[in-house]
TrEMBL record:
Residues bound to molybdate: S50, S77, A164, V191, Y209
The family this protein is said to belong to: Belongs to the bacterial solute-binding protein ModA family.
Molecular functions per Gene Ontology: metal ion binding; molybdate ion binding; tungstate binding
Subunit-structure text: The complex is composed of two ATP-binding proteins (ModC), two transmembrane proteins (ModB) and a solute-binding protein (ModA).
InterPro entries named among the record's database cross-references: ModA (IPR005950), ModA/WtpA (IPR050682)
The entry's keywords: Metal-binding, Molybdenum, Signal
Organism: Luteimonas aestuarii
Signal peptide start-end: 1-24
Pfam families cross-referenced by the UniProt entry: SBP_bac_11
Gene Ontology terms: biological process: molybdate ion transport
GO cellular component: outer membrane-bounded periplasmic space
UniProt name for this protein: Molybdate ABC transporter substrate-binding protein
Length: 273
Protein backbone atom coordinates (compact mmCIF):
# COMPACT_ATOMS: atom_id res chain seq x y z
CA UNK A 1 0.00 0.00 0.00
CA UNK A 2 1.34 3.42 -0.94
CA UNK A 3 0.84 6.79 0.69
CA UNK A 4 0.24 9.12 -2.25
CA UNK A 5 2.59 12.13 -2.46
CA UNK A 6 -0.39 14.45 -2.72
CA UNK A 7 -1.10 15.10 0.94
CA UNK A 8 -4.05 16.97 2.31
CA UNK A 9 -2.88 19.90 4.39
CA UNK A 10 -6.13 20.18 6.25
CA UNK A 11 -5.14 18.28 9.39
CA UNK A 12 -2.01 20.40 9.74
CA UNK A 13 -4.11 23.51 9.23
CA UNK A 14 -6.31 22.52 12.15
CA UNK A 15 -3.26 22.59 14.42
CA UNK A 16 -2.46 26.08 13.18
CA UNK A 17 -6.08 27.14 13.38
CA UNK A 18 -6.31 26.07 17.02
CA UNK A 19 -3.20 28.07 17.80
CA UNK A 20 -4.41 31.28 16.15
CA UNK A 21 -8.13 31.09 16.79
CA UNK A 22 -9.19 29.24 13.65
CA UNK A 23 -7.78 31.80 11.28
CA UNK A 24 -6.03 29.28 9.05
CA UNK A 25 -7.05 27.11 6.10
CA UNK A 26 -9.47 24.21 5.98
CA UNK A 27 -12.27 26.16 7.57
CA UNK A 28 -15.36 28.16 6.78
CA UNK A 29 -16.32 31.30 8.68
CA UNK A 30 -19.67 33.01 8.56
CA UNK A 31 -19.68 36.80 8.91
CA UNK A 32 -19.38 38.02 12.47
CA UNK A 33 -21.23 41.27 12.05
CA UNK A 34 -24.72 39.82 12.37
CA UNK A 35 -26.76 39.65 15.54
CA UNK A 36 -26.18 41.16 18.95
CA UNK A 37 -22.72 41.77 20.35
CA UNK A 38 -23.34 38.88 22.71
CA UNK A 39 -23.57 36.52 19.73
CA UNK A 40 -20.63 37.70 17.62
CA UNK A 41 -18.21 35.07 18.91
CA UNK A 42 -18.59 32.24 16.39
CA UNK A 43 -19.74 28.81 17.41
CA UNK A 44 -16.85 26.53 16.39
CA UNK A 45 -17.81 23.31 14.62
CA UNK A 46 -15.34 20.57 13.71
CA UNK A 47 -16.85 18.57 10.83
CA UNK A 48 -15.81 15.64 8.66
CA UNK A 49 -14.35 16.71 5.31
CA UNK A 50 -17.20 15.08 3.39
CA UNK A 51 -19.65 17.56 4.94
CA UNK A 52 -18.01 20.63 3.37
CA UNK A 53 -20.72 21.92 1.01
CA UNK A 54 -23.66 20.84 3.14
CA UNK A 55 -22.30 22.23 6.42
CA UNK A 56 -21.32 25.49 4.74
CA UNK A 57 -24.93 25.82 3.59
CA UNK A 58 -26.20 24.84 7.04
CA UNK A 59 -23.97 27.45 8.69
CA UNK A 60 -25.32 30.11 6.34
CA UNK A 61 -28.91 29.08 7.06
CA UNK A 62 -28.27 29.09 10.82
CA UNK A 63 -26.78 32.58 10.62
CA UNK A 64 -29.69 33.84 8.52
CA UNK A 65 -32.22 32.42 10.96
CA UNK A 66 -30.56 33.29 14.26
CA UNK A 67 -28.00 36.02 13.59
CA UNK A 68 -25.39 33.85 15.29
CA UNK A 69 -22.20 33.08 13.34
CA UNK A 70 -20.72 29.62 12.93
CA UNK A 71 -17.13 28.82 12.04
CA UNK A 72 -16.52 25.34 10.60
CA UNK A 73 -13.18 23.53 10.34
CA UNK A 74 -13.02 20.50 8.03
CA UNK A 75 -10.65 17.53 8.06
CA UNK A 76 -10.71 13.78 8.51
CA UNK A 77 -12.78 12.77 11.54
CA UNK A 78 -9.69 11.11 13.00
CA UNK A 79 -7.62 14.29 12.75
CA UNK A 80 -10.37 16.42 14.24
CA UNK A 81 -10.95 14.03 17.15
CA UNK A 82 -7.26 14.16 18.00
CA UNK A 83 -7.35 17.95 17.88
CA UNK A 84 -10.24 17.94 20.34
CA UNK A 85 -8.18 15.66 22.58
CA UNK A 86 -5.32 18.16 22.40
CA UNK A 87 -7.58 20.98 23.53
CA UNK A 88 -8.54 22.67 20.27
CA UNK A 89 -11.37 25.15 20.95
CA UNK A 90 -14.30 23.34 19.35
CA UNK A 91 -17.91 23.51 20.50
CA UNK A 92 -19.47 20.84 18.26
CA UNK A 93 -17.93 17.76 16.63
CA UNK A 94 -19.50 16.01 13.63
CA UNK A 95 -17.83 12.71 12.74
CA UNK A 96 -18.25 10.56 9.62
CA UNK A 97 -18.47 7.49 11.84
CA UNK A 98 -19.47 6.65 15.39
CA UNK A 99 -16.06 5.27 16.35
CA UNK A 100 -14.40 8.67 16.73
CA UNK A 101 -17.33 9.95 18.78
CA UNK A 102 -16.97 6.81 20.92
CA UNK A 103 -13.23 7.51 21.21
CA UNK A 104 -13.85 11.03 22.50
CA UNK A 105 -16.68 9.91 24.76
CA UNK A 106 -14.43 7.28 26.36
CA UNK A 107 -12.12 10.16 27.29
CA UNK A 108 -14.97 12.33 28.63
CA UNK A 109 -14.35 14.86 25.85
CA UNK A 110 -17.91 15.01 24.48
CA UNK A 111 -21.22 15.21 26.30
CA UNK A 112 -22.94 11.82 25.82
CA UNK A 113 -26.35 13.36 26.44
CA UNK A 114 -25.94 15.61 23.40
CA UNK A 115 -24.91 12.83 21.04
CA UNK A 116 -27.08 12.18 17.97
CA UNK A 117 -26.77 9.88 14.97
CA UNK A 118 -27.50 12.57 12.39
CA UNK A 119 -26.94 11.35 8.83
CA UNK A 120 -26.18 8.43 6.57
CA UNK A 121 -24.37 8.16 3.25
CA UNK A 122 -23.58 5.72 0.44
CA UNK A 123 -20.17 4.40 -0.61
CA UNK A 124 -19.39 4.63 -4.32
CA UNK A 125 -16.60 3.80 -6.76
CA UNK A 126 -15.68 6.78 -8.93
CA UNK A 127 -13.55 7.50 -12.00
CA UNK A 128 -12.57 10.71 -13.79
CA UNK A 129 -15.54 12.13 -15.69
CA UNK A 130 -13.77 11.58 -19.03
CA UNK A 131 -12.87 7.96 -18.27
CA UNK A 132 -14.00 5.44 -20.90
CA UNK A 133 -15.15 3.13 -18.10
CA UNK A 134 -18.90 2.60 -17.92
CA UNK A 135 -21.08 1.94 -14.84
CA UNK A 136 -21.28 -1.64 -13.64
CA UNK A 137 -22.44 -3.72 -10.68
CA UNK A 138 -19.94 -4.44 -7.93
CA UNK A 139 -20.29 -8.10 -6.98
CA UNK A 140 -18.08 -10.61 -5.18
CA UNK A 141 -15.07 -11.39 -7.33
CA UNK A 142 -15.37 -8.33 -9.61
CA UNK A 143 -11.93 -7.77 -11.17
CA UNK A 144 -10.97 -4.10 -10.92
CA UNK A 145 -7.34 -4.54 -11.97
CA UNK A 146 -8.02 -4.06 -15.71
CA UNK A 147 -9.59 -0.69 -14.87
CA UNK A 148 -6.41 0.32 -13.02
CA UNK A 149 -4.13 -0.60 -15.90
CA UNK A 150 -0.49 -1.49 -15.45
CA UNK A 151 0.48 1.26 -13.00
CA UNK A 152 -2.76 2.89 -11.91
CA UNK A 153 -3.82 3.12 -8.28
CA UNK A 154 -7.10 3.35 -6.46
CA UNK A 155 -7.54 6.35 -4.15
CA UNK A 156 -8.88 5.71 -0.64
CA UNK A 157 -8.86 7.56 2.64
CA UNK A 158 -6.43 6.16 5.19
CA UNK A 159 -7.73 2.67 5.81
CA UNK A 160 -6.49 2.64 9.40
CA UNK A 161 -8.26 5.79 10.58
CA UNK A 162 -10.28 7.76 8.01
CA UNK A 163 -13.91 6.57 8.07
CA UNK A 164 -14.28 6.46 4.27
CA UNK A 165 -11.06 4.46 4.01
CA UNK A 166 -12.18 2.03 6.69
CA UNK A 167 -15.55 1.55 5.00
CA UNK A 168 -13.82 1.00 1.64
CA UNK A 169 -11.47 -1.64 3.00
CA UNK A 170 -14.33 -3.43 4.75
CA UNK A 171 -16.35 -3.44 1.53
CA UNK A 172 -13.50 -4.77 -0.58
CA UNK A 173 -12.78 -7.46 2.00
CA UNK A 174 -16.45 -8.45 2.01
CA UNK A 175 -16.42 -8.72 -1.80
CA UNK A 176 -13.18 -10.71 -1.82
CA UNK A 177 -11.27 -7.97 -3.66
CA UNK A 178 -8.96 -6.54 -1.02
CA UNK A 179 -5.95 -8.84 -1.44
CA UNK A 180 -5.71 -7.97 -5.14
CA UNK A 181 -6.25 -4.24 -4.63
CA UNK A 182 -4.19 -3.59 -1.50
CA UNK A 183 -0.85 -3.20 -3.35
CA UNK A 184 -2.49 -0.67 -5.67
CA UNK A 185 -4.00 1.60 -3.00
CA UNK A 186 -3.06 5.29 -2.79
CA UNK A 187 -4.01 6.47 0.71
CA UNK A 188 -5.05 10.04 1.42
CA UNK A 189 -5.46 11.98 4.65
CA UNK A 190 -9.20 12.44 4.12
CA UNK A 191 -11.92 11.48 1.67
CA UNK A 192 -11.81 14.82 -0.14
CA UNK A 193 -8.11 14.34 -0.84
CA UNK A 194 -8.92 10.93 -2.34
CA UNK A 195 -11.67 12.54 -4.41
CA UNK A 196 -9.21 15.14 -5.68
CA UNK A 197 -6.81 12.47 -6.90
CA UNK A 198 -9.55 11.05 -9.10
CA UNK A 199 -10.84 14.46 -10.20
CA UNK A 200 -7.34 15.42 -11.36
CA UNK A 201 -6.93 12.15 -13.21
CA UNK A 202 -4.02 11.11 -10.99
CA UNK A 203 -5.73 7.81 -10.18
CA UNK A 204 -8.19 6.00 -12.46
CA UNK A 205 -10.41 4.88 -9.57
CA UNK A 206 -11.32 5.99 -6.08
CA UNK A 207 -13.79 5.23 -3.31
CA UNK A 208 -15.71 8.13 -1.79
CA UNK A 209 -19.17 8.91 -0.48
CA UNK A 210 -22.05 9.56 -2.86
CA UNK A 211 -22.26 13.10 -1.47
CA UNK A 212 -18.61 13.70 -2.43
CA UNK A 213 -19.21 12.48 -5.97
CA UNK A 214 -22.24 14.76 -6.26
CA UNK A 215 -20.09 17.74 -5.24
CA UNK A 216 -17.34 17.13 -7.83
CA UNK A 217 -18.28 17.42 -11.54
CA UNK A 218 -14.89 16.07 -12.61
CA UNK A 219 -15.77 12.55 -11.44
CA UNK A 220 -18.49 10.06 -12.31
CA UNK A 221 -19.93 7.16 -10.33
CA UNK A 222 -19.13 3.73 -11.74
CA UNK A 223 -20.70 1.60 -9.03
CA UNK A 224 -22.40 1.71 -5.66
CA UNK A 225 -21.17 -0.71 -3.03
CA UNK A 226 -23.84 -3.22 -2.03
CA UNK A 227 -25.66 -2.70 1.24
CA UNK A 228 -24.16 -5.01 3.81
CA UNK A 229 -20.69 -5.00 2.26
CA UNK A 230 -19.52 -2.52 4.89
CA UNK A 231 -20.74 -1.23 8.27
CA UNK A 232 -23.56 1.32 8.09
CA UNK A 233 -22.27 4.82 7.37
CA UNK A 234 -23.41 6.99 10.26
CA UNK A 235 -22.50 10.63 10.85
CA UNK A 236 -22.70 11.38 14.56
CA UNK A 237 -22.69 14.78 16.25
CA UNK A 238 -22.04 15.78 19.85
CA UNK A 239 -21.26 18.82 21.95
CA UNK A 240 -17.63 19.05 23.01
CA UNK A 241 -17.27 18.80 26.79
CA UNK A 242 -16.29 22.07 28.40
CA UNK A 243 -17.49 24.15 25.46
CA UNK A 244 -17.69 27.83 26.35
CA UNK A 245 -20.76 28.03 24.09
CA UNK A 246 -22.58 25.03 25.50
CA UNK A 247 -26.11 26.43 25.18
CA UNK A 248 -25.54 27.61 21.61
CA UNK A 249 -23.92 24.27 20.77
CA UNK A 250 -26.99 22.43 22.04
CA UNK A 251 -29.32 24.67 20.04
CA UNK A 252 -27.23 24.17 16.90
CA UNK A 253 -27.28 20.37 17.30
CA UNK A 254 -31.05 20.52 17.78
CA UNK A 255 -31.38 22.65 14.64
CA UNK A 256 -29.28 20.19 12.61
CA UNK A 257 -32.11 17.71 13.22
CA UNK A 258 -34.77 20.10 11.91
CA UNK A 259 -36.64 19.87 8.61
CA UNK A 260 -34.80 22.93 7.29
CA UNK A 261 -31.39 21.43 7.97
CA UNK A 262 -32.54 18.03 6.71
CA UNK A 263 -33.50 19.56 3.37
CA UNK A 264 -29.97 20.96 3.03
CA UNK A 265 -28.35 17.61 3.75
CA UNK A 266 -30.67 15.73 1.40
CA UNK A 267 -29.90 18.21 -1.37
CA UNK A 268 -26.22 17.40 -0.98
CA UNK A 269 -26.70 13.64 -1.23
CA UNK A 270 -26.97 12.59 2.41
CA UNK A 271 -29.53 10.28 3.97
CA UNK A 272 -31.38 11.40 7.10
CA UNK A 273 -31.29 9.07 10.10
Amino acid sequence: MKRHPLRSLTATCIVLAAAIGLGACGERATPTGAGDAHDTTPLVVFAAASLKESMDAAADAWLAGTGRPVQVAYAASSALARQVEQGAPADVFVSADVEWIDWLQSRDLVDPGSRVDLLGNTLVLVAPADSPLQPFALTPGTDLLPALGERGRIALGLTSSVPAGKYARAAFESLGLWSALEPRVAESDNVRAALLLVARGETPLGVVYASDAAAEPRVKVLATFPEGSHPPIVYAVARVAGSARGEDATHFIDWLQSDDAGAIFRRHGFVLN
